[in-house]
């Protein structure tokens, strides 16, 4: 069965430093997609970045990059140059296949950025 | 575009009451989903739909019904509310494939 694991309940990082949030996944389907979402204290879910299982290169979106290691089944989120506004919950999620819209979420990591 | 809208934002029910959470999207997305988020947990899929007239169960479907009569709307019905259904409910939509899911703002439901 597919599963997403986020082992870091909380992380601290100083402003302007980089931080890596861990995510490992388990699936037997060769076609899958991996997503990262940010949930600030206001509660909305904000899409950050996507990586497809057949993508050759790691995804990047501005200050966000996804360190995709397929053999290790990991999809870590790297935030460069952290800002105070990055303080939030971060969720990793996986979609198996392409003809479904079912996302499986991890339990999340709470990131706190301090000055 | 309004994106994905959900009503109400907050709701308090008594055990045994029924209600419908509304969800609408104006992006002409085929795929729509309902999730619940409990403290300390990620989002869990309740029901989803791949198009009008087609729905299927997710991970935690018990106690909930859905229907999809139009592309735009995907209401979630609580048949007989229980305290275990106290949660934040999110509706989402997408084009499927590699497209991301767009989430509504959520409904915070408390069942007493």
Structure description:
The complex is a heterodimer of chains A (115) and B (112). Chain A is built from no helices and twelve strands. Chain A is mostly beta strands. In chain A, strand 5 (32-39) and strand 6 form a beta hairpin. The mean pLDDT of chain A is 94. With 112 residues, chain B is mostly beta strands. In chain B, 0% of the residues lie in helices and 50% in strands. Chain B has strands spanning 4-7, 10-13, 19-25, 31-37, 43-51, 54-57, 64-66, 76-78, 87-94, 102-103, 107-111. Chain B is globular, with a radius of gyration of 13 Å. The model of chain B has no long low-confidence stretch (mean pLDDT 94). At the A-B interface, strand 5, strand 6 and strand 11 of A face strand 4, strand 5, strand 9 and strand 10 of B.
Number of strands of chain A: 12
Whole-angstrom Rg of chain A: 14 Å
Strand content of chain A: over 45%
Range of strand content of chain B: over 45%
Q: Please give the count of helices of chain A.
A: 0
The helicity of chain B comes to under 10%
Largest sheet of chain B: 7 strands, mixed
Overall pLDDT metric of chain B: 94
Distance between the termini of chain B: 36 Å
Estimated radius of gyration of chain B:
13 Å
Topology at a glance:
The complex is a heterodimer of chains A (115) and B (112).
Chain A: E1 3-5, E2 10-14, E3 19-21, E4 24-26, E5 32-39, E6 46-52, E7 60-61, E8 64-69, E9 74-79, E10 88-96, E11 103-105, E12 109-114
Parallel strand pairs in A: 2-12
Antiparallel strand pairs in A: 1-4, 3-9, 5-6, 5-10, 7-8, 8-9, 10-11, 10-12
Chain B: E1 4-7, E2 10-13, E3 19-25, E4 31-37, E5 43-51, E6 54-57, E7 64-66, E8 76-78, E9 87-94, E10 102-103, E11 107-111
Parallel strand pairs in B: 2-11
Antiparallel strand pairs in B: 1-3, 3-8, 4-5, 4-9, 5-6, 7-8, 9-10, 9-11
Features:
heterodimer; A: 115 residues; mainly beta; six-stranded mixed beta sheet; 12 strands; 0% helix; globular; B: 112 residues; seven-stranded mixed beta sheet; four-stranded antiparallel beta sheet; 11 strands
